[in-house]
Amino acid sequence: MRLGATAGRRVDVRMLAATHRDLEQMVARGAFRHDLYYRLNVIPIAVPALRERRDCIVPLLRHYIDHFSASIGTPKRLTRAALDILTHYSYPGNVRELMNLCERLVVMTDTELIGLPDLPTELTAPSQEEALRRLQWHADLTLQEVLDSAERQLLEEARGRFRTQAEIAEALGVNQSTIARKMRKYQLI
């Protein structure tokens, strides 16, 4: 019924809603109305984050580099080294971050090739420094001691990221019993 009208009108409406929150959990906690949840949850579509769809990154990079190159009228392309760095980046801002990064690279580079020096320093410098900081080899350590140290650091980081040993095992591609044994070995339990 329109505001001020006396008669109702029939309308055909479709609603599309998107969120990154777990609405089922919010309904259980009472933080989201359950009646609204059931009205909205007709055809749920889960779109995984870009970091979970690594095979989509290269086609998206190429598409947006070509798209923004066409908009400025100058062909641009990525070097193999730049493509490798961009492929292994986690994209916390998802596809929107990838698009913005591609536009920045196209607009800010003078040459046709977009290489490592053209990439933002937050993509290149921290990863190299972090790798060197994590793996500190001293001349008095054996290979096994270095491997044990790296394994322990990896398990400590995984323990902070995941809630269970099963999740850690799945992420690292090993059995849960292997994770349990190694965590006991390094006294991480």
**What portion of residues is helical?**
55-70%
CATH class categorisation of the largest domain: Mainly Alpha
Strand-residue fraction?
A: under 5%
Assembly classification: single chain
Name the poorly predicted regions: none
H-E order: HHHEHHEHHHH
Instruction: Please compute the radius of gyration using only Cα atoms.
Output: 25 Å
Major beta sheet, strand line-up: 1-2
End-to-end distance: 63 Å
Overall CATH architecture of the largest domain: Orthogonal Bundle
Mean pLDDT: 87
Shape: flat
Overall structural domain count: 3
The structure class reads mainly alpha
Largest sheet: 2 strands, parallel
Description:
The protein is an all-alpha fold and 189 residues long. It has 3 domains: 14-46, no CATH class; 50-121, Helicase, Ruva Protein, domain 3 (Orthogonal Bundle), CATH 1.10.8.60; 135-185. The chain is built from 9 helices and 2 strands. It has a two-stranded parallel ribbon with strand order 1-2. Helix 3 crosses helix 5 and helix 8 crosses helix 9. The longest helix is centred in the C-terminal third of the chain and has 19 residues, at 143-161. The protein is flat, with a radius of gyration of 25 Å. The model has no long low-confidence stretch (mean pLDDT 87).
